[in-house]
Design goal:
Low-confidence stretches: 1-19
Helix content: under 10%
Distance between the termini: 36 Å
CATH superfamily of the largest domain: YVTN repeat-like/Quinoprotein amine dehydrogenase
Strand order of the largest sheet: 1-26-25-24-23
CATH topology of the largest domain: Methylamine Dehydrogenase, Chain H
Number of domains: 2
Radius of gyration: 23 Å
Shape: globular
Structural class: mainly beta
Length: about 450
């Protein structure tokens, strides 16, 4: 393993400054290739519980161990074709890497981690591709192709010897597949093609969504029930859009969002949130619990130097780690690792129902796994600190530390500590402390 420099700063915002964050906690930054630059990022959760970030570098792929927040470091580097953009996805213990340059698709064997990564094979059925997606349930790899074969479908029955079984579409920039439906961002067509791939040997067009006044249809993602679809257009001024797709014969636009840089790259959905790599705006986290009214719930700006519609800043993000960490790849600043802290929610009240006293409610549900909500009431404006402790009195998590106005508030705790790691099952204490009030209660985290 190379002895590479890395930067690690815990519990602070030294690297970019407090003004560059909202409801996110900085964990670490690593930038081993500042003269070369990172582009895309993906993640890999190993069977032994370790977490890895897979980073596209202009001249290869960097594999970074992010399991221990105090010891984040590169474990290996696999050289590859020199390309501004790489796309990386995983299946079983393999990573599949494509580039915009000739050289085919690299297949990396991750089973040797934490010691090393091996180049298992190079698939040469195509020479270059901008994007891929892997249907891990059915063992199928979808790749952006050419004018003759806009989307190629490859079987991964043998993961190191993919076999192309079909092709389809009219144009493709990126794709997403869930529950036998393939959603294709159709680039210059300003459309999303939705295909049935129940028979992957013969994909069939189900519906085509033509985006009104659309830009370049760049990427697409859906929620777990395939009832909500998010799209980006990677065109200045074009919004991230959220669509009702519960009836494919009657798709409707619900809500839209656009950050200050006016140029969004990719969007990923997880639970009630959309995670957007938003170029010069950095990572944007948008609450879509009401998709008719998307609300920004958090952000982390990896590029405070500017806020315009340029291809600087956050190119990629990955929110699907098991330990709650979020990866942000930035062509300038490298890999930044953060966690998302669910914001407090103020419950609207009439003047007649304003709290008369300080109150700390029992968390609900209790016992819980892994999420619980804590409610409290403030009769006056005051400094507020809401903290989680273990039974030894050691601080586990600070949920709130700010001045708040009178009202009733709710905050979520997802069973993670300040480093983004899931804490063990057991009894925990939570304490509300203000300028003139302090109270503590118990709660039980189960597994």
């Amino acid at each position: 393993m190379k002895n590479l420099k890395y930067i690690l700063i815990l519990f602070g915002m030294y690297f970019l400054g407090l003004s560059q964050t909202s409801n996110t906690t900085f964990i670490a930054n690593i930038n081993d290739y500042p003269a070369i630059g990172y582009n895309d990022c993906w993640g890999y959760s190993a069977p032994n519980g370790k977490e890895y970030a897979l980073l596209g570098v202009r001249n290869g792929t960097s594999i970074i161990d992010v399991t221990d927040p105090q010891n984040i470091m590169e474990k290996d580097f696999i050289p590859g074709p020199n390309s501004t953009w790489k796309d990386i996805k995983t299946y079983q213990h393999y990573a599949y890497v494509v580039t915009e340059q000739l050289g085919g698709m690299q297949i990396l064997d991750l089973s040797f981690l934490p010691d090393s990564v091996q180049l298992a094979a190079v698939y040469t059925g195509f020479q270059s591709s901008h994007n891929i997606f892997i249907d891990t349930v059915n063992g199928l790899l979808y790749t952006e192709g050419n004018f003759t074969e806009p989307v190629r479908v490859l079987s991964l029955d043998n993961p190191i010897q993919p076999v192309q079984i079909s092709s389809f579409g009219i144009e493709c920039h990126d794709m997403f597949v869930r529950d036998t439906l393939a959603f294709i961002a159709e680039g210059t067509q300003s459309s999303v093609g939705i295909y049935s791939v129940a028979d992957p040997f013969q994909p069939v067009l189900v519906q085509r969504l033509n985006i009104p006044a659309g830009g370049y249809a760049h990427n697409v993602w859906t929620n777990t029930t395939n009832t909500l679809m998010a799209t980006t257009e990677e065109t200045p001024g074009k919004t991230v859009k959220f669509w009702d797709i519960s009836d494919l014969s009657n798709i409707s636009l619900l809500g839209e969002y656009l950050g200050g840089s006016s140029l969004a790259h990719n969007v990923f959905l997880l639970g009630n949130y959309a995670y957007i790599s938003h170029y010069e705006s950095g990572l944007k986290i948008v609450d879509i619990s009401d998709p008719n009214s998307p609300v920004e719930a958090g952000f982390y700006d990896t590029y405070p130097q500017g806020e315009g519609p340029n291809f600087n800043g956050a190119w990629g993000t990955y929110p699907y780690t098991k330990n709650g960490m979020i990866f942000i790849s930035d062509f300038t600043s490298g890999l930044t690792v953060v966690t998302f802290d669910s914001p407090t929610v103020a419950i609207p009240l009439s003047k007649a129902t304003q709290p008369a006293n300080f109150v700390l409610e029992q968390n609900y549900p209790n016992p819980f796994n892994p999420n619980t909500r804590i409610s409290y009431q403030l009769p006056e404006m005051t400094r507020v600190k809401l903290q989680i402790f273990n039974v030894l009195g050691q601080e586990i998590r600070t949920l709130v530390s700010k001045v708040q106005t009178p009202g009733i508030y709710e905050v979520n705790w997802d069973g993670r500590n300040n480093q983004g790691l899931t804490v063990p099952a057991g009894i925990y204490l939570y304490r509300l402390q203000t300028d003139s009030f302090s109270e503590m209660k118990k709660m039980i985290l189960t597994k």
